[in-house]
Write a sequence for this structure.
């Protein structure tokens, strides 16, 4: 067991409120310190507004602990909390397993379609049907080898009564622009408040597919909204252009690996990997264009500018927050519990290259403070979720499952 305590004397740092979808919420973010990021940025790009990057540091005042439930997983990618307190975990190689609070790991459930686990592919994000307790249905994203290349796909199935298999599996959605690339699949899935699914899909990284993030006839570099049978959901925004896909919800994304719905406003938020610099947190607005690769706060890995080297353009959304240098944000969740009051409605994000969990306090839809949790663990945090017990659960590339809760 690994325990981390956080006890600070500055009670004024306590976060008491919640964020809102207006500019007059009563969130009380106390005094902040210097930004947690002290590294040299990769560019001289300037933020579009104050607090868009390198927000002031905050510190959790409530004493909490983190413990490793197990370190016996193999490259876990997604985690979901089951009604009885166990955890449903995907492993990159193509497995879905169940883990108890005592750290007992089940055998891989049978019936799961084959994945292409090369590079950034594999069995990715997972979520439960809101009616799981009666229908036992789950939904997941995976990379699939297809004619013409690899694609991002979404499947659903029912966990058998004896919990050894996924039954009646169906692939309900496939991205429509296959490519040989084994990078940037995106890969998160979650339900909205109307019973439809949001799915994040990457632009596959290579120069050939990068422009497709702006192409409305391609599902690459998009957030799509679909029904549980894989059709375009009713009420999707009207996105104009030749061959525009009806499932598109937003366009202009690079590699979006995190989705979360704000517990108070109901709005969708998203994390997105940038290139060298330019990792983003976005508040998702139906029908909006988030700019990639036309605008970005990052540069090519080799140092060259991307496109015209611009960070703003009319008709394209700015990120709520960005990092330079990158932290590589992946799965994320909003905290809606009461056990640690200052965390309420804060956004928690697993950081891969950053090797920590990001905590962002948000006020008026802007980041008011940033904290880095579990940075001493030296783990690549891949996903994080909140349980009905109000604890946070996080998985790491190195195979750990953490529980984080009030001490």
């Amino acid at each position: 067991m690994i325990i981390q305590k956080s006890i600070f004397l500055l009670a004024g740092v306590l976060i008491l409120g919640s964020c809102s979808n207006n500019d007059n919420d009563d969130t009380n973010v106390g005094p902040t310190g210097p930004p947690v990021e002290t590294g040299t940025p990769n560019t001289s790009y300037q933020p579009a507004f104050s607090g868009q990057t390198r927000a002031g540091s905050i510190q959790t005042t409530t004493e909490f602990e983190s413990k490793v439930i197990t370190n016996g997983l193999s490259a876990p990618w997604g985690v979901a909390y089951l009604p009885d307190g166990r955890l449903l975990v995907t492993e990159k190689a193509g497995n879905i397993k169940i883990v108890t609070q005592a750290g007992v790991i089940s055998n891989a459930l049978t019936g799961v379609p084959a994945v292409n686990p090369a590079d950034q592919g594999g069995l990715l994000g997972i979520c439960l049907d809101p009616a799981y307790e009666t229908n036992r249905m789950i939904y997941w994203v995976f990379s699939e080898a297809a004619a013409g290349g690899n694609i991002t796909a979404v499947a659903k199935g029912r966990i058998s009564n004896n919990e050894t298999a996924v039954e009646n599996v169906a692939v309900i959605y496939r991205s429509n622009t296959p490519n040989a690339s084994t990078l940037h699949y995106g890969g998160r899935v979650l339900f909205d408040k109307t019973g439809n699914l949001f799915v994040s899909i990457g632009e596959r990284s290579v120069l050939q597919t990068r422009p497709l993030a702006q192409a409305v006839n391609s599902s690459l570099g998009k957030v799509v909204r679909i029904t549980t049978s894989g059709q375009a959901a009713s009420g999707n925004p009207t996105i104009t252009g030749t061959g525009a896909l009806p499932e598109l919800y937003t366009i202009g994304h690079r590699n979006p690996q995190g989705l979360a719905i704000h517990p108070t406003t109901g709005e969708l938020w998203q994390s997105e990997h940038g290139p060298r610099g330019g990792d983003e947190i976005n508040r998702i607005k139906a029908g909006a264009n988030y700019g990639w690769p036309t605008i970005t706060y990052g540069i090519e890995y080799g140092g060259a500018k991307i496109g015209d080297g611009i960070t703003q353009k009319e008709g394209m959304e700015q990120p709520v927050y960005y990092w330079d240098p990158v932290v590589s944000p992946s799965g994320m969740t909003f905290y809606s519990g009461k056990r640690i009051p200052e965390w309420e409605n804060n956004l928690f994000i697993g950081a891969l290259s950053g090797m920590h969990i990001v905590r962002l306090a948000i006020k008026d839809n802007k980041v008011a403070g940033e904290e880095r949790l579990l940075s001493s663990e030296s783990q690549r945090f891949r996903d994080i979720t909140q349980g009905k017990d109000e604890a946070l659960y996080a998985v790491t590339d190195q195979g750990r499952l953490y529980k984080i809760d009030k001490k």
Remarks:
- The two ends are 14 Å apart (CA to CA).
- The longest helix spans residues 132-135.
- The helical segments are 132-135.
- The first strand starts at residue 33 and ends at 35.
